[in-house]
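Worked example

This section walks through a single chain of length 82. The input is the sequence exactly as stored; nothing has been trimmed or padded.
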Amino acid sequence: MMDARKREVLTNVEVLKRILAVVKFLGKQALPYRGYRNESAYSLEYQTVDHGNFLELILLIAEFDVPLNLHVKKIIETRKRR
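Given that input, the structure is written out below as tokens.
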């Protein structure tokens, strides 16, 4: 039980590192986090929608990063159930 919890915590730490890297990048480049509309997790499964700089960078990194990809997929599935 503890091993599963430790793995989950370590995965969440890795996801958080990527999210903080995106926040630091946007701040360093003085880019806005949001777009004009559709910046919510409710529309993440639609790739033709502009989600804003923050979410678009998260989606880009998630294409190549397993922990972040799993996290994004989990968020999409959670939003579909609501």
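What to look for: Helices lie at 2-28, 53-64, 66-81.
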